[in-house]
Each structure stands twice: as structure tokens, then as C-alpha cells.
Records
---
Amino acid sequence: MRWDDFRRSDNIEDRRGLGGGAVGGMGIGTVVVLGLIGWALGIDPRLLIGGAEILTGNRSGYESPAQPGPTGAPSDQLGQFVSAVLGDTEDRWKEIFRQSGGQYREPKLVIFSGLTRSACGRAQSAMGPFYCPNDQRIYLDTAFFRDLEQRFRGCNGKACQFAQAYVISHEVGHHVQNLLGILPKVQEAQQGRDRAQANQLQVRVELQADCFAGVWAYHAQAKWNFIEPGDVEAALQTAAAIGDDRLQRQSQGHVVPDAFTHGSSEQRVRWFTKGLKSGSLSSCNTFQESQV
């Protein structure tokens, strides 16, 4: 992946090395363990951590604010890469929104290590990258990139960069959903439904974000011709590696489709590919597909 031509975004807050400390009487180790358990079982890790906080005595509900980090494009290689990918998503999505008469508002991206705070609750490395619509920020512990290569075996070598760009652009896809009003509608529709039904809606949200990531890559390729041999294969391998079915099979030996929250490996690959080939938002309507 060639990214030298990408504009660097200043919408980065770097909290790496600031430390997260203990949360509600729990150490980071406990938080990470609970996060892994929730991830394996298809349960929001924040629910487990919240329950554990009650048991450890933090009943006040008070959330201390996160220590702010420096803003702007970081100077290290990894920070420059994240800033470059974010910058190009900003440029491409502005163009896409402008074509339909809309205006794209840029999200912020918080880089952290281990633990930090968000307007959606605590952000832990065990939870993986996520988008918080409450503060329109993407939270990324860059250690997840190492996990992609070493733990999930989603990619290897230089080809990992395009897979990492896919991860970032997927979270930007959630921001696009928020701007389009999709996320609020889904959150409203999930109210009052049982967990299996709510999870089915969440899968459609995640697959659409995969498709939107492909849409970004399509337009970036048209602009820069930045994709190198092996890049797409690495991204598809990553999408497959973090499918719910594969993760469940690895962690518990069997698959529970009702607990899916992101989609199967086949679904994630198919929807990213659809966006990458079409470059069209209209091709990403996972909510009208009879079978996603």
C-alpha cells in the first residue's frame, strides 16, 4: 500500500503513554480479562465491566474525564500512517457527500494504549477499535494492529497496512452511518427487542460499515492508484479472520449465530468486496437485503 501522497489529518488526539490506571477499583488486567470474555461470548464487555464495578464498590457512577493528549498528526511512523489514512477518508467522503448535495463532518480519532475514556464509556484494548456516536470519535489502540498479524493471523508483512487501513475506514464507516441518520434509527429499533434480534440489527450495521470501507478504498484507488499486489487479499483475509463465526469457533469450539454482532467471515468479505467493486453507497444497503 502506497500512502505517502495521502494528506495527514490533524483530527488526531494521541493519548498513548498517558496511562489508564485502575477503573472503579479494578486493575487493567481485570478489565482486559472481562473484555476478552465478553468478546468471546458475544456480550458487550462494558456490561460485564459495569457489573464487576458494582461488586468492587464503585456505585457512584462517576466517570473521571480522560487526560487529554496532544492533537494533530503524530510524528512517529505508526501515528503518521493513522493520520494519513484518516486524512484520505476525510477527503474522499467529502467528495462523495458533495456529489449528493450533502456536507461531510470530520470525526476525531483517539489513539490510546491500554485504557482510556470515551463518551460511550471506557475504551479498553480488549474491545478492539470502535466508534462512539456520542462524541463522534473513533477509539483505536494501535496494539490491535499487532493482534491482526500475530493473534488473528489476518495478514502479514507490508500487506498488513492495507488491512489496517480497512480497520480504520470501517470505523469511519460508522461515522458516515451516524451522519446519514442510520445509527440513531437502528438504536431506536433495537429498543425492546431481545438480544438475538438486537444482534441481527447490529450485524447489518457492521456489514454496512465494511461495505463503506470498500467504498472509500474504491475512490482512493481511483485517485491515487495506491493498492499494491497482495493488499486486497490481506484485507479480505483480515475481514475473514475477525468474522464472528471464526472467533467463536476459536474461543469456544462452536458457533452461536444468535450471538453474532459483526457478521460471519463470508459476510464480512462479501460486503467489503461489494463496496470495493462498486464505489457506491447504494450498493451498501444491508437493511434491504433479505439475506445479508
---
Amino acid sequence: MMSGRQQRDTLLALADHLPAEAAEALLELATGGTPRIPTPAAPAADPFEHPDAQRRFRVMTNVEELERALEFPWDKWSIFLHPDQRQFVERAYTGPARISGSAGTGKTIVAIHRAVFLARNDQNSRVLLTTFSHILANALRTKLRRLISNEPRLEERLEVHSINAIGARLYKTHYGQADLAPQEVIVDLLSTAAKEVENHTAIPSCSPNGSKS
């Protein structure tokens, strides 16, 4: 019998081999949701006009359009928003919202466009986009600048930082420069405390880069 983690890994591996709409339906079911029922194309309609077809195909109507597409910078294609994603960007939510999906389904692009949408629709707003690592924050910042390259004033109200950077900045604002204990000291304290608790699993030691030993 597979563990919960094995089941999750198997599900994500399966989703990676399915068409995008099938993978999204599978992940929606796995997280307790109800998959969106696709609208069938009308018998006489152009199949390439269907939203699911537009995920994979773009019909060029003339040579000039094809030339413009080939000349279009790749960095602009990398922040392209699909019509199905736009509904999540522009929806009026009554509280927190979660978008789930496997790697490559466009969650990051939705987050970037959502941040820009909020800033554009409220001239007095300041929008913070956060992630879990400095590397990913830098990548998001680069994509964001590509999206609003012609709106420099908008960039002044949009910030992209890692959670750690935000925490450090807030602490410094209220209490001054943080004096953080080295990771080795923290791990040593946790290991010592774990040994004092009966039937407790020992804390593995970690190197500064986060790898376990």
C-alpha cells in the first residue's frame, strides 16, 4: 500500500503525461474540487476556436501575422496569458483563493498577471508578490518587468520578494537589525532538545545549503 506522499508523487507524474485540461481535472478531483465540464464545440464550428484547442494551437490567417509571431521576442511569449487563465486573474474574490496544478500549468503566470491587475485597478494600491526563495523571487521580478515594461509608474507600486526577505525587513523596521543564530547552532539545539524527549526521532543535521547529513 502506497503512502500519502507516494500517492501524491504518482498522481503528479501521471498528470505530467496528460493533456492540460485532463491534468487539471485530475488534480481538481484529487484536491476535493469539482472539475470544470468543458463546453463541446458546435458541429459546424471551427475546432481551432475551442478554448482547449487554443491551449496548443494558434491559427495564422496570413503571412504577415506569421512573420510577426516569429519575430516576437521569446520573453514576451513566456508571460502569455491564456484565455482560461484570465478568469482567475480578473475574478473578484471574497477572501483568500488557491490555485493548484502541476508544474508547467501556468500558476506563476497567473500570479504575475493578478498582481498587475490589482495594481492597475486601484491607483492607490501597493501589491506584494511573495515566494519561498530568493532565486524564484528574482525570476518573478524579471517576468513582471517584461509584462509592464511600458508602465514604469506601475512598477513603483509592485514589489516581489521572498518570504524570508519580507520577514527580515519587517523585523528591522520594528526592532532593528536581526541577530540570527547560525544554522549549525539551531540544529544543535534542536538535536539536544529532541534527545531529552522520550521516543522522539533525532533531528538530522544540515549543512548551510540545506542538505541533510
---
Amino acid sequence: MIPIALTIAGSDPSGGAGIQADLKTFSALEVYGASIITALTAQNTKGVAAIHRVPAEFVQAQMDAVFSDLDVSAVKVGMMWQADIIGVVAAGLERWQQRAVVLDPVMLASSGDILLAPEAREALKRTLCPRALIITPNLPEAAALLGAPVARTEAEMREQGERLLMLGPQAVLVKGGHGDGPQSIDLLVERKACTRLTANRIPARNTHGTGCTLSSAIAAGLAKGMQLADAVRSAKDFVTAALAAADTISVGSGQGPLHHFHASWSKSLQQ
């Protein structure tokens, strides 16, 4: 049976982030992708111009339609935007007994535009984090969730990961992509372990949708039956390769997307 992963997130009409990046990632990793839209954005490679919320009751209707028919093996949760949508999503995950949940606590777009209303932050911590198998904050997101300064060392990253575990997830992936140095270092913090994941830092111009891609790649691995640590390692490898190939494609005039199909597109298309 084909593995199925579901993304619950916002839509990026330019295709670089949000559900579009998630579905591309699922396809590239040979997983069938389904999607539930929580918000519509008007954005491109240069920034976000507007956000239109999807009514919470319609998000619930989408969830019930998908879960009542598809055998979903893993769920990626991304942009939630407002507290009522967070509540509906959390209730739906519980109602449909979804446990392999990857929560990407999206707060800001790559351009710096706000993607989570400030008043919704507590709802995210209180209702969604406890239902996640893993949450995947970058350094600014981890700091924002904790009301703390941005971590500058691996020791501080681990300490913040351990504090985030207290919100209820089984694991926290503290992503070091916003850090400095020749290597991008992520820490997978679990209750009895901490795994250091490294990759050479890629000086790519096109990085739009990196966080969306990583979290959806983890969900794809879980949908295929991987153990969590293996799914995280595989996802980091995929994102690193997609970043390394990102500047071989030209999409838009701003910060372009990763190359999700770097392994399958012919070289004649990568110009």
C-alpha cells in the first residue's frame, strides 16, 4: 500500500513554501500527499502581500473528509495563523487518533512577514505541542516559544530543546540553519537522548521554504515506516541536497525555492 502523508498548512501561490513545498517534498520522496489549507496567502519570492484566513469550521470539514477516507500514516502541521484554527486542528488530530505528527511552529516567512498571530502563540504551545511527536523550531522560533534570547551555542540549543520538551512533544529538533559557522548543526532532543546532526552550510541564494521542506520530509519518512531519528536524518540529507541544487533553477526575482526534484529532473531543466 502506498504511504500517505498529510500536510495541514497555508498555501503559497508561488509554490516555494507551504502546502505546495510539502506536496513537492512528499512526491520527491515517493509518498502520496494530501493537503488541508488553513490560510491563503498572496506571496511570491519577494514577500507576503496578504493573508486570508480559512474559517475554522471549514478546516474541520477538510480534516473530517480526508481522515474518514484516506489511511494517513503521518501528518505535518505548518502555518496555523489564528487560535481558533489551532484549536480545531488539535481537536481533529485527537479525534482521528493521529500520533505521527510533525509540528513546524511557523511564525515568520523567510521574508520576515508574520505568519502566526501573536495571540495564537499560547494556543500553539498549549494545544498543539502536546499532540506532536516532534516539533521543529528554528533558533528564532525556539526562542519565541520560550520567551528567551536566541541560542548562540550548542549548549544553549540543547537547553532550549529540553525546555520545549516540557510543552509535551516526544522530541524537539532545534534547527541551526540561522546560526553561524561552516556547518549547519541541528540537535534532535529527546527525553533520554540528544543527537547532533551536521551538514556543511550551503551558501545558496534560494532558500524559500526550507523549514516547510524539512518538516514535510520528516513526515514522509515516518509515513514510510522509518523510526523518528532515521526520518530526521533522511530529511536533513534531502534538504541539504535540495539547497545545494537550489541555485541551478531560476524562479522569481527574489529569494527562490529549493530544488525539490534535484534527483529526478533532467539537467536541461536545471538552468
